[in-house]
Amino acid sequence: MALPKGLNVWRVLVVLFGGSVLAVGSALLKVPQWAVSAFQSVAINEKTPALTPSTMGSVIIIASVVAIILGALWVQSFIHRRGQAGEALEAAGELYDAVSDHGPPVLLSDVVWTIEIRKDYSVRTVYEWTWQATSEPVFAWSAHRGSDNVRVDDLASIRFRAEVVGGPGRVITIPTSNEPGRKRYLIFPHPPLTPGAAQPQRIRVSSEWPGGAKKLGEVNDWDRNTWEVPIRCAQPIGSVKVTVNYPRDGKRYETEVISPALVQHTAGTDQWSADFANVAPGTKVALRTRRCSP
User: Fold this and answer.
1) What is the pTM of this model?
2) 29-57: per-residue pLDDT in tens?
3) Are β-strands 123-133 and 201-209 bridged in parallel, bridged antiparallel, or unpaired?
4) Beta bridge partner(s), residue 117
5) Where are the domains of the chain?
6) Is residue 33 within 8 Å of 53, Cβ to Cβ?
């Protein structure tokens, strides 16, 4: 049930909590004296100050008021922090767009794209590539993951990770948007990539999408995967290798290339792979996979 417009759920919880504690304190004002006497009979010593029902109730009521005030301040601070986080995420989104469209050119080579489809039809995607700066230092790179079929609200469940697997340095990743059908990230090489570096850097970027291939639950229903070669690539990528690992569930699957022109491919029971050559910036490498057997 939705709350009335303008009514914050956190304030409602604080009021309910405070009201319940105040009710307990008020009830104690009516506790019979014999109950208090019984409680005092187990006191540490006879010098313990006399405790009356009204004293007990007053103490709890005062403590409740203090708790409500502190709780309200905490809630206000929490909401303020959430607002600041939202503003920071929006600013990061603007930075993502700038990096995607206007960043310095990068030389990519030996790209490997692996799609692992699991028995529950969740999908793990892994990209590997070697990259080098050309004319200017490279400070940031953009990446995104998404699905047109399955919405995921929890950013953590995507398990996005970027790491250096060859060459010097490391990479730092921050999320810039958390839409249900699309997650966007910025990857920062540290130190930045510089032209003429003695050794190129190779990185691996992995992620998961729960239920991303759920279309395969139906026979002959095609599930599509697409990767667009970044327009920031300084030149066509010499080699792009794509592999699709099928669920090992005893069923038959097949994969077809939608675009671009295919150089060669290998089809097996558990895996399909293909090699593309000289893939130009902006090209969409698109595949589709279906389950052929019940």
Assistant:
1) 0.69
2) 444 444 444 434 444 444 444 555 545 55
3) antiparallel
4) 123
5) 9-100, 106-291
6) yes
